[in-house]
Automatic annotation (TrEMBL):
Full protein name: G-protein coupled receptors family 2 profile 2 domain-containing protein
Lineage start: Eukaryota, Fungi, Dikarya, Basidiomycota, Agaricomycotina
Classification via SUPFAM superfamilies: Family A G protein-coupled receptor-like
Keyword Chloroplast: no
GO cellular component, one term: plasma membrane
GO molecular function, one term: G protein-coupled receptor activity
Keywords: Membrane, Transmembrane, Transmembrane helix
Transmembrane helix among keywords: yes
GO terms (BP aspect): adenylate cyclase-activating G protein-coupled receptor signaling pathway
Organism: Hydnum rufescens UP504
Record localization: Membrane
CDD domains reported in the protein's UniProt record: 7tm_classA_rhodopsin-like
Coiled coil start-end: none
Region listing for Disordered, in residue ranges: 294-377
Length: 472
């Protein structure tokens, strides 16, 4: 068994009775107080969101609750040490301290992975059974993370003795290098997972900037039999990943991603405006089959033989379904006429067909209650630029946001690797490296508050301002 009195000096920056150790604890206390404050601010801001009950907002709330919990635990034990009540290595108080600290750190790791997984699911697989079940049973995600975190922390507490390391306790083995690796490897795994998921999302959003549905996409899909009064065969709904791989898209048919509003934390009014102006085209595979809504809350049902179209018969073509589940526009006509119209679009520079399937080609002044009374009010070029500008803004801002999310764990992993190298190369580890490592750990909450909070809300504000300036 390790000697606690000797081993404690290997991990702490300096004894808290020294001037350097006292200064270290004071700086740590200030950083932890800032961590608690920043996590609290983000939690309050999340509670004020219109979509606070959405899956991603709930997961973000769990992440910053873990930051708040971690910061409060660290701060409490460090303040107790400064007051002269430092726990002794190997004591029951030190064991409890180590258990609480390690469980909070595991919660941070797991909630970070959960946020990335949820973001990936709602953007690339919004209608998958996994996403829908996760939205309905979101509390199981919380319970799983807490159960795993407490279990791993209890395992560490049972395997190793708790050692006081200056301000708080931690479970340590006899090998210093093994201890450093046990802290570095989980961070590296978390970093690898979130970079893989966020890179996939960023790639999808960048591809999506020039993406829309064209006749090329229609011709590639195999039609499924659709029985109805007209006896037509309508192509099945394209999957999101198939849309991402489509080429030759027409920019005047801007495509709306269902989970984009949730990822950008937009208000309900802004979300409804996007769903109205940047619609998602999809086809009903069966006219009597109920599909989950794109928001995951309501079902869309299109009965057989009924047409709820508010578009004149001269522009009839494909099914057009709004994702806010408030109205459904259905246009029925022969498939050959649809293909003859859409096949005329061979390049981005070609003009849209005269009988367009998109009711919004009438211009931004299109009314839900009927067709535009003045179809020549807005030119095709101006409406095309309007759709392109907002669509590209959404994709660019969202891609930038997801690229910044791995920032915290990139810094943590780099510092952990540097500490592993320092401990392996030097017989006596550098107190400076230990100080940087400790303070980086304490800054994990503020760094996440910067990316998930400050920058995310700034992008939310910019996107909302762009939407309101155009249509609200």
């Amino acid at each position: 068994m390790p000697n606690p009195d000797l081993d404690s000096g290997r991990y702490e920056i300096a004894p808290y009775t020294n001037r350097l150790g006292l200064a270290s604890d004071v700086i740590s206390s200030c950083l932890l107080a800032f961590s608690v404050f920043s996590a609290s601010v983000v939690i309050v801001a999340l509670f004020k969101l219109d979509n606070k009950n959405k899956l991603r907002s709930r997961t973000l709330l769990g992440l910053f609750t873990a930051h708040l919990w971690s910061g409060a635990i660290f701060l409490g034990f460090i303040l107790a040490s400064l007051a002269g009540h430092a726990p002794k290595s190997g004591s029951s108080t030190c064991q409890v301290s180590a258990f609480l600290v390690q469980s909070a750190m595991w919660c941070q790791y797991l909630f970070t992975v959960a946020v990335a997984t949820v973001s990936y699911a709602i953007l690339l697989h919004p209608l998958s059974p996994f996403t829908i079940k996760l939205e309905r049973h979101w509390y199981l995600l919380y319970l799983t993370i807490y159960f795993v975190s407490l279990g791993l922390s209890a395992l560490q507490t049972g395997m190793y003795q708790a050692v006081y390391i200056g301000g708080f306790c931690f479970n340590k083995s006899e090998s210093n290098l093994l201890d450093e690796l046990s802290g570095c490897i989980p961070r590296a795994i978390v970093l690898f997972i979130i970079i893989a998921l966020y890179w996939k999302i960023t790639w999808f959003l960048r591809r999506h900037r020039t993406l829309s549905m064209t006749s090329t996409l229609f011709r590639r899909r195999k039609s499924k039999c659709l029985t109805g009064t007209a006896g037509l065969a309508i192509p099945a709904a394209p999957q999101v990943e198939e849309l991402a791989s489509a080429k030759g898209a027409s920019p005047w048919d801007a495509l709306y991603i269902p989970g984009l509003s949730e990822a950008l934390m937009l208000s309900k009014a802004e979300e409804q405006t996007l769903e109205y102006r940047l619609p998602l085209f999809w086809f009903e595979a069966c006219p009597s089959e109920k599909r989950p809504s794109l928001s995951g809350s309501l079902d869309i049902s299109l009965p057989s033989g009924e047409s709820t179209s508010t578009v004149p018969s001269s522009t009839q073509g494909v099914h057009y379904v709004e994702s806010d589940s408030s109205r459904t526009l259905a246009e029925k006509a022969s498939v050959p006429s649809l293909l003859s119209e859409t096949s005329s679009i061979d390049s981005l520079d070609s003009p849209p067909p005269k009988a367009s399937c998109n009711p919004y080609d009438a211009g931004p002044d299109y009314n839900r209650g009927g067709p535009n009374t003045n179809p020549k009010a807005v030119s095709l070029q101006s409406q095309r630029e309007s759709y392109e500008t907002l669509h590209n803004l959404l994709m660019r801002k969202a891609a930038l946001l997801f690229m910044l999310f791995p920032l915290t764990y990139t810094i943590l992993t780099i510092i952990s690797l540097a500490r592993v190298i320092d401990d392996y190369a030097a017989p006596h580890p550098s107190p400076v490296m230990h100080a940087i490592s400790r303070w980086t750990l304490f800054l994990q909450g503020p760094l996440d508050a910067l990316t998930y909070g400050v920058i995310a809300f700034k992008i939310k504000k910019d996107v909302g301002k762009a939407i309101r300036s155009r249509w609200l």
